[in-house]
Write a structure and sequence with these properties.
mainly beta; about 65% strand
């Protein structure tokens, strides 16, 4: 019984009990958040929100950005790590 939820400007297809990663939320670990329910099947067809529990906050994989110009001795490298939140669908 899969359904589609929305967090921020992104949509995710999830099932109850599944853990998934979204952009960083401001709530604390262990809190329960309500997510907009976009599409659902079967017995969940009348509800408007889905409940998810925040498992942990984490940082994503490092992304490297490299700038390089040939024959001019120019090269720059920088990177960042995206802030993420792991959620588990409760209901």
């Amino acid at each position: 019984m899969a359904f589609v939820i929305q967090s921020g400007s992104k949509q995710y297809t999830v099932i109850p009990g599944q853990q998934f990663v979204v952009d960083r939320l401001t709530a604390l670990e262990g809190d329960t958040v309500d997510l907009n329910l976009i599409y659902s099947y079967g017995d969940l067809s009348g509800t408007k929100t889905a409940k998810a529990r925040i498992v942990r906050h984490q940082r994503g994989k490092k992304i490297r950005v490299v700038k390089f110009k040939s024959k001019s001795n120019y090269h720059r490298q920088y990177g960042y790590r995206h802030e993420e939140t792991v959620l588990e669908v409760v209901k």
